[in-house]
Specification:
Elements (H helix, E strand, L loop, with lengths): L18 H4 L14 H28 L46 E7 L13 E7 L13 H16 L2 E6 L3 H14 L5 E7 L1 E4 L6 E4 L12 E2 H9 L5 E7 L12 E8 H6 L2 E6 L10 E2 L2 E2 H11 L4 E3 H15 L5 E4 L12 E3 L3
Parallel strand pairs: 1-9, 2-3, 2-4, 4-8, 8-10
Antiparallel strand pairs: 5-6, 6-7, 10-14, 11-12, 13-15
Length: 363
């Protein structure tokens, strides 16, 4: 059994973290299979030691300079330099009124998500709505950060499903570094129109600083000694904000990815027609777990989360909103492993109250 980061190592029941493990040696799987809740809680207690051993230099850098991993916003006028930067925020329509009976609640409170009502005839064939997906799968990390086994297989199958069933143009990145990821998202921000649907998927290592609650993706060119090539949640929000489409969803299959959904959790409690959903800007995040380790072992050569996401997308009929896909994934994952997928709105990236993401099989 492998893990999404060393902090997610599946340790044997009472095994103490050793220096050898901190250098990337994979432990054996649990005797008897997937750990129960008591064992899982023991893993969570031990993971702090592993993280401290592996990332201690990068963490010290971030404590001294919390912006050590941040990418600057691109200047208003191109300067001709090749410095990595994030496109400036997109111009998006002013927020519309909340749906009937819905209050705009403060960050951290649960917010209702619309369920789909009525026929897709409300929005026509959808032919004018371009669908674009960027999927990043990172396996080949440099020691002592351990390699992963499933992300590339995950993104390849999910990309094929998005192309075949939903009509997405897919761009798949294998073993991508920080610059590749940022530039791929910048390219989407440059191309995408307001009526388009954009899906971004990341599978790889992740990390959450417990003291500051700062979350990060760990690309394949990242180092345990410096955070320079990490990607912060702050920058992920900026990358999402730069995409001017009304339909944007980020799916993150990594340790501690639940920190991406912290702004506002969504629950389904009212219905809305498809055309009403699509008139509001939606920036959603679906994560494989909360602020917890997630499993890289799974089913059929995929992570547990990816396997259930694939099955859930395969079961979509004419259309489903993101919350419906999330509930299907959530219910499947929690039966298999003690991790809890999350779904939330990213208001800092321009999400509008009442917005949702539409998975539509019609073309």
């Amino acid at each position: 059994m492998k893990s999404r980061i060393l902090s997610c190592l599946v340790l044997t029941g009472v095994l103490l973290v050793s220096a050898a493990q901190a250098q990337g040696i994979r432990p054996p799987a649990f005797v008897g299979g997937v750990p129960g809740m008591a064992q899982f809680q023991a893993i969570q207690m031990q993971r702090h030691q592993v993280r401290t051993l592996l990332y201690r230099q990068a963490l010290e850098e971030l404590r001294k300079n919390p912006q050590a991993a941040d990418v600057p916003v691109c200047p208003p006028i191109a300067t001709g330099t090749r410095t990595l930067c994030i496109r400036r925020p997109a111009a998006v329509p002013a927020a519309e009124a909340a749906a009937p009976g819905q209050e705009i609640k403060p960050p951290g409170a649960q917010l209702p998500a619309p369920a789909l009502q009525g026929s897709l005839a409300d929005i026509g064939t959808g032919a004018a709505r371009r669908r674009i997906a960027v999927l990043v799968g990172n396996n080949a990390y440099r020691a002592p950060i351990p390699a992963l086994g499933t992300p590339i297989a995950d993104v390849n199958e999910i990309a094929a499903l998005l192309r075949g069933r939903f009509g997405y143009e897919t761009r798949v990145l294998h073993d991508a570094g920080k610059a590749q990821i940022v530039e791929a998202m910048n390219q989407i921000a440059e191309e995408a129109k307001p009526e388009d649907s954009v899906l971004l998927f990341y599978a790889g290592h992740g990390y959450l600083m417990e003291d500051t609650k700062m979350g990060f993706w760990i690309p394949v060119d990242a180092s345990e000694k410096t955070a320079a090539n990490w990607i912060s949640n702050t920058d992920i929000a900026k990358l999402l904000q730069a995409i001017g489409s009304r339909q944007v969803i980020l799916v993150s299959d990594s340790c501690f990815s639940g920190s991406l959904t912290r702004e506002q959790k969504l629950t389904s409690s009212f219905v809305s027609k498809a055309d009403e959903i699509l008139r509001r800007r939606a920036v959603l995040a679906l994560s494989s777990g909360d602020e917890e380790p997630v499993s890289d072992a799974g089913k059929g050569g995929h992570s547990i989360f990816a396997w259930h996401l694939i099955r859930s997308l395969e079961s979509v009929g004419d259309a489903a909103v993101g919350f419906q896909v999330y509930r299907s994934v959530h219910d499947g994952v929690v039966k298999d492993y003690p991790q809890t997928p999350q779904y939330g709105a990213v208001f800092s990236a321009g999400h509008m109250s009442g917005g949702e993401y539409l998975f539509d099989t019609r073309r």
